[in-house]
């Protein structure tokens, strides 16, 4: 039960910069790839201080095999009669409209939602997202790991049906409320990230073959996010490490780590177009690491600290991309 637990933030002034409302979201999917589909979605709408306004849940026909049924429990027979995503897109959008999307590992939920809206030739009305993993780090919560069950246990929330979108959204809403109020009491900066709609979906390719009777032809259509391709090697020599306060220079080796506001491939494309070398790993030759979470323990962040590699966030990197210094002799 979502009960009211007053904190210091209840009596103190609420941070004026905090959002005016939240949509706590969980989606279950056919898998984790870019062409996988949503099979169920749940939204708990919360007001500015985390109080629940209402909740909503729906099944979605993915028009293909439902994937790991042993995890989410949704069989082909159950999903055959469910609405297609375009059929629920308007109602889903109404639940998200003018709110910050809150999710556990929010980049995944947002990416799946954004791709479904792109397929439906619509745009999800979400401008910012908040990841409860990032918030727990910001608050320094003593969690053994970053699983939802660990966050729930920390706040005494009972999880009744893991990997059920409605129950996962409820659990997250219950855990988010005390997190939000703790943050407000300490005037902690919320780790908000920008949500940009995906626009690179194009029709015309052969869709993945359905594996069961849950597939329904017609409305889905075939398509692809982008052609599979290997980027050409950077034509410019590596000028060395980035020096804070200066411009980027063509040929610099740039690595990315963690959640980004812009879809990762699009961000990498912009870097390549500017004449930078996108590195998939981090070494002593890496010029710069771009991450929105410099305190994380990803292998790239750890190596950057060991090697003394400069680190900057996505927003600063985006600004520098607008004016990259040409390589010597270019």
How is the secondary structure organized here?
Blueprint: H1 8-11, E1 21-29, E2 38-47, E3 52-59, H2 69-72, H3 76-80, H4 85-96, E4 100-103, H5 106-119, E5 128-131, H6 132-139, H7 148-154, H8 165-185, E6 192-194, E7 202-203, E8 223-224, E9 253-257, H9 264-273, E10 277-279, E11 288-291, H10 299-307, E12 311-312, H11 314-321
Helix pairs in contact: 6-8, 7-8
Structure description:
With 330 residues, the chain is of the alpha/beta class. Helices cover 31% and strands 17% of the residues. The protein has eleven helices and twelve strands. It has helices spanning 8-11, 69-72, 76-80, 85-96, 106-119, 132-139, 148-154, 165-185, 264-273, 299-307, 314-321, and strands spanning 21-29, 38-47, 52-59, 100-103, 128-131, 192-194, 202-203, 223-224, 253-257, 277-279, 288-291, 311-312. The strands form three sheets. It has a six-stranded mixed β-sheet, with helices on both faces. Strand 4 (100-103), helix 5 (106-119) and strand 5 form a beta-alpha-beta unit. The longest helix is centred in the middle third of the chain and has 21 residues, at 165-185. The radius of gyration is 21 Å and the shape is globular. The termini are far apart. Residues 3-8, 204-222 and 224-229 have low confidence and may be disordered.
